[in-house]
C-alpha cells in the first residue's frame, strides 16, 4: 500500500466543513510558533520552519496567515510554552498507533490521549514500543487532476531533486524522500508551480495490518476520531489498512 489511502482521507477532509480546516490551521499555527522559537523566522536558515510552511501551503493556508504567524512568534509577544510529546500504543486487532502532540498542559494531553485509547479498547505503551515498525519519511501527495505535468516528467523531476521513490495511483502521485531531502524536492515542485495535496515529514508503516473483525474496526476508528478532534494532537500515524473503510 502506498499513498492512496492517505490521499483519499486528505481529499475527504478538504471537502468537509470549515471546522475541519480551522483545526488544521490551529495545528499548523502552533507548529509555526514552535519552529520560529527554535530556529528563527527565516525559513532559508530554519529547516523545520521551511517544512511547516510546505505543510501550510499544501493545506491551503493563506500566505498572509503564514506570515502573520511567523511575525507574531518572532515578536516580543510571541512567547511559546508548548512542549512536543509523542505517545505510542496499541489499537485493537494488533494495530500500532503513534500520536504526536504539542501542548501547554502535559497532564491534560496525557489524560486525553489515554482516554482516547481506552474508549477504543486500546492502550498506551512505553516510548519506542511501536515506532520501530515505522520509517520517518518526507511524503508529498499530488492530485492527478491538479497536475499538468505527465507522470514520467514528474518522476524525473523529483528523482533529480533527491526523492527516493515515486508511486503512481489511480488518482494521485506519491513522492517519498528522506527527511533531509524533503525541502529540496518541495522547492523543485514549487518552481514548476506543481501544487501538492499534502507535503510533510511523516511516519510510514513498514507493513499494514488488516482488521477483519467489525467491532475492532469500529474501535480503531473511535480512537482515531477522538484523537483527530483533540487540539493538542498534531498528527496520528497508524498501520491499520483502512482502505476497505473508505
Describe this structure in words.
By secondary structure, the protein is an alpha+beta fold. It folds into three domains: about 5-75, Arc Repressor Mutant, subunit A (Orthogonal Bundle); about 85-130 and about 205-245, 2-Layer Sandwich (Alpha-Beta Plaits), CATH 3.30.70; about 135-205, Alpha-Beta Plaits. The protein contains eight helices and eight strands; from the N terminus they run H-H-H-H-E-E-H-E-E-H-E-E-H-E-H-E. A hairpin with a 3-residue loop joins strand 5 and strand 6 (about 170-175). Helix 5 (about 105-120) packs antiparallel against helix 8 (about 215-230). The protein is globular, with a radius of gyration of 18 Å.
List the helices and strands and how they pair.
Blueprint lengths: L3 H12 L2 H22 L7 H12 L4 H12 L8 E9 L3 E9 L2 H14 L3 E2 L9 E10 L7 H10 L4 E4 L3 E6 L4 H10 L6 E8 L8 H16 L3 E6 L8
Antiparallel strand pairs: 1-2, 1-3, 2-8, 4-6, 4-7, 5-6
Amino acid at each position: 500500500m502506498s499513498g492512496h489511502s492517505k490521499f483519499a482521507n486528505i481529499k475527504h477532509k478538504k471537502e468537509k466543513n470549515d471546522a475541519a480546516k480551522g483545526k488544521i490551521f490551529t495545528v499548523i499555527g502552533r507548529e509555526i510558533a514552535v519552529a520560529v522559537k527554535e530556529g528563527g523566522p527565516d525559513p532559508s536558515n530554519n529547516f523545520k520552519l521551511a517544512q511547516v510552511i510546505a505543510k501550510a501551503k499544501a493545506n491551503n493556508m493563506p500566505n498572509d496567515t503564514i506570515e502573520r504567524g511567523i511575525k507574531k512568534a518572532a515578536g516580543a509577544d510571541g512567547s511559546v510554552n508548548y512542549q512536543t510529546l509523542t505517545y505510542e500504543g496499541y489499537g485493537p486487532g494488533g494495530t500500532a498507533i503513534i500520536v504526536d502532540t504539542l501542548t501547554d498542559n502535559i497532564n491534560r494531553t496525557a489524560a486525553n490521549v489515554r482516554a482516547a485509547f481506552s474508549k477504543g479498547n486500546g492502550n498506551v505503551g512505553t516510548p519506542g514500543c511501536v515506532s520501530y515498525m515505522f520509517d520517518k519519511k518526507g511524503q508529498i501527495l499530488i492530485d492527478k487532476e491538479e497536475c499538468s505535468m505527465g507522470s514520467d516528467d514528474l518522476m524525473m523531476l523529483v528523482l533529480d531533486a533527491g526523492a527516493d521513490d515515486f508511486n503512481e495511483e489511480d488518482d494521485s502521485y506519491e513522492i517519498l524522500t528522506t527527511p533531509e531531502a524533503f525541502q529540496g524536492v518541495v522547492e523543485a515542485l514549487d518552481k514548476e508551480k506543481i501544487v501538492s495535496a499534502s507535503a510533510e515529514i511523516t511516519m510510514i508503516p513498514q507493513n499494514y495490518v488488516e482488521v477483519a473483525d467489525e467491532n475492532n474496526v469500529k474501535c480503531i476508528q473511535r480512537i482515531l476520531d477522538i484523537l483527530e478532534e483533540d487540539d493538542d494532537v498534531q498528527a496520528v500515524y497508524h498501520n491499520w489498512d483502512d482502505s476497505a473503510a473508505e
